[in-house]
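Task: fold both queries, return tokens.
Query 1:
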Amino acid sequence: MAIETRHVADPVRFARMTSDEIRECFLVQGLFAAGEVKLVYSYVDRVIVGSAVPVDQPLRLEGSKALASDYFTQRREVGVMNIGGSGQVAADGESFPMGHMDVLYIGRGSRDVRFESEDAGAPARFYLVSYPAHTDYPTRVASMSDAEPIRLGSQEAANKRTIYKCIHPDGIRSCQLVMGFTELESGNVWNTMPAHTHARRMEVYMYVGVSGDDRVFHLMGKPGETRHIVMRDGEAVISPSWSIHAGVGTKSYTFVWCMGGENQAFDDMDPVSMEAMR
């Protein structure tokens, strides 16, 4: 199982990068390939972003030389979200059924992790995010109805949305992984604006529900030196702790967010005023 390894730029280099260089550094493309496990290892908090799309047979999450491990979760935890058809994930022989938008936490020490679809014609599309883990927490699944909803924004500001918290200290416990998703209501296009940073942890956004010719313009960089990346459906972006992470779409959409770092406090953010944005 090959893992792409990726360095990322610091704020000084970022300010001088072309659009292509920014995309090569921070954008994760090519996820959700049928019949494959795809993984990208970033040196930003050693996060791994990936996918598994089983079709005719199960797919296995394996260790590799890049991780210096005998099996993938030997020193890691994994958050899994299914953005496709029904499927299941087996961890050390225990099966966890997963419907559309269900989330699974896989704890450190799960030696045998396998992904499977119920229907090869409408396969599950498992999105994966993994961080190093220092202890064991039990593997648990949460349906969308189990997620903690937070309703924010307004129609006037075009940012009316619901945040669903899935893996967090008051829900599914983990070492450092915090995971959920945000769903914008119809006619709303802005996410996370006014923007913020959180110097104590990094974040990954993965955009879904971006169909056809629609796009999301993802904003990143230090508040006084911002750039954008044009995002398509099923693409993820790595946001270092020094960068804002916000976006606007040509139509409403959903994005999966995942954080890791020094703490798991959802509200531990450093707000950025609109006056400071450049």
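Query 1 returned. Query 2:
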Amino acid sequence: MKVVILCGGKGIRIRDLSEELPKPMIPIGRYPIVHHIMSIYSHYEFNEFVLCLGYKSWKFKEYFLNYRLETTDITIDLANSGKVDFHKEHKIPPWKITLAETGMEAMTGCRIKRIQKYIGNNTFMLTYGDGVSDVNIKSLMDFHRSHGKLVTVTSVRPISRFGELVVDGDAVKDFQEKTQTSDGLINGGFFVCEPGTFDYVSEDENCSWEMEPLKHLARDGQLMTYVHDGFWMPMDTTREYILLNQLWNKNEAPWKT
């Protein structure tokens, strides 16, 4: 089963960081966030990926074409025609990656339609290239198979952008920053889709997965949700970029596999 990752957007809300890099290539610690997302799936033995590229697509190609060079110690023998020996201390992930050019201006639904040829008549997973979570992919898949509908979306409780006050009358008893909200669920990505999903998207570059396709799937009774109450965070802003890196650097990243 292939995992489709939407990586083509321009990252306007985090433009101060994405001016040089597309948002999925912005690093958390040593690795770009898309690498972290792929590692989540790989932990559950999903190792075939289709990356829907657009903005600065060559940055993805440079990274994965030079992956061993980027991540492994090497010895260069200049006296022997520049012979390069790659050391084996670093484990190379068993990934097969299709880097698909899906257009500079295409919206998410159009990008999904344009990679249909790489999926064929098979179930596939789908997510965004800018969010990490400790979602259990196996449990998500088991839930999807249990209901027989076309699409499962993982719903999450967003991280509060403000500190949460715990009050008793007029007295503040506790103050908690960066907590997940207790009310309301939102689209957290981490979809599972049947091939019939492609009937709901089109080659129209204005086709946005989050608009008419998901609305039509819901109206047709073909959209179910897997509720994830654990950690989930997107990297939409510089503040979130800093928080994710702080978690990683402190070895407190819940998504680390």
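Both queries returned. Flag for query 2: The radius of gyration is 20 Å.
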